Amino acid sequence: MLFPNGTVMVNYRVRVKGPCQLDLSNFPLDLQTCHLIYESFNYNNHEVSMSWSPIDSPVYNLTPVVLPDFDLFNITARKVIEPYPAGMWDELHVYIVFERRFIWYFMQAYLPTYLTIFISWVSFYLGPRAIPARTMLGVNSLLAIVFQFGNIMKNLPRVSYIKAIDVWMLASMTFIFCTLLELAIIGYMVRDEGKPKKKSSRPSTPCPDQQSPGGFDKRFMYPAVCAKPVNNYNLMEQLTPERIDRFSSIMFPLSFLIFNLSYWIYYLQRKQQIAEQMIMGNFT
Q1: Along the 284 residues of the chain, how does pLDDT read in single tens digits?
Q2: 93 has which bridge partners?
Q3: Phi, psi of 212 (to 5 degrees)
Q4: Element at 97 (helix H, strand E)
Q5: Could you tell me which residues belong to the region Disordered (predicted)?
Q6: Measured between alpha carbons, how far apart are the two ends of the chain, in Å?
Q7: In whole angstroms, how far apart are CA 219 and each of 14, 207, 230?
Q8: pTM for this structure?
Q9: Which of 111, 211, 215, 252 is the most exposed place for a label (fewest CB within 10 A)?
């Protein structure tokens, strides 16, 4: 449409596929940006001047955007004058920010991991003598979380940096592996229970005092089988299997709680920082 003042209005539908540079370091709490550029192919800004409409949001969606894995987070537009050898070109930039839907990954990855770790802690309450049952429980928990981790990773692009879900899965594996280490310590401590103890063949006689009443030293006159009583503090007698299980049943959940708070606080704050950087960076 041509107006009397020379303004030309062109209205037509365009379907394009724009590039999106993926940064999965915060996955699945990530935001992704797609960048589109509109410019003239042959004419510089002395011949064709391009600008957005003088309104607050020149680019907006007419209908709600529904995607299976993302929500539309923000749309920003700005004008850039880019120098070329043939002159200056007007470029109209559009930044579309998408926020990943987190609930699917929470139900498929995080929630089963919680349940697997909680099941591995049941072994603390089975008693130190239930070694076969505790071994089967710990190994099955470790195999389950390894299979789950591989099932999630095969659907993601291969990247050379650590993602947020990698930190979660590796830490969860570490907690279950430490449960098996605790079981190995318990098994080592109860391995000799039920076996007959060896008795000494030579009788022991109490040792006399090293100083005689007359003041003479008689320590070289002790018999060969003399046994001097020794009062040493034995740490192994204090660390019983029951006490180790009781200590582990408190420390493992407490450590996992601290890890959860650190993990979610860090990555949620990082997501907020990324969103602010994307919005502010698109206006500069």
Answers
A1: 788 887 777 777 878 888 888 899 999 999 999 989 988 888 888 888 888 888 888 888 888 888 888 999 999 999 999 998 888 999 999 999 999 999 989 998 999 999 999 999 999 999 888 999 999 999 999 999 999 888 888 888 788 899 999 999 999 999 999 999 999 999 998 887 766 655 555 555 555 555 545 544 544 454 545 545 555 455 556 788 899 999 999 999 999 999 999 999 999 999 999 999 887 776 55
A2: 37, 78
A3: -75, 160
A4: strand 87-100
A5: 196-216
A6: 33
A7: 106, 9, 16
A8: 0.78
A9: 215
Q: Are residues 173 and 114 in the same domain?
A: yes
Note whether residue 157 is domain-resident: yes
Considering the domain architecture, whether residues 130 and 90 belong to the same structural domain is answered as: no
Regarding whether 242 and 164 lie in a shared domain, the answer is: yes
Which residues on neighbouring strands pair with residue 78, listed in sequence order? 93
244 burial level (CB within 10 Å; 0-12, 13-18, 19+): middle
Token representation of residue 255:
């450590």
**For 64, how many CA atoms within 13 A lie in the half-sphere containing its CB?**
4
Quote helix, strand, coil % in the chain, to nearest 5.
45, 15, 40
Same domain, 87 and 149: no
Which SS3 state, helix, strand or coil, does residue 256 take? helix
Examine the domain organization and report whether 73 and 115 are in the same domain. Answer: no
d(CA 143, CA 132) in angstroms, rounded, equals 16
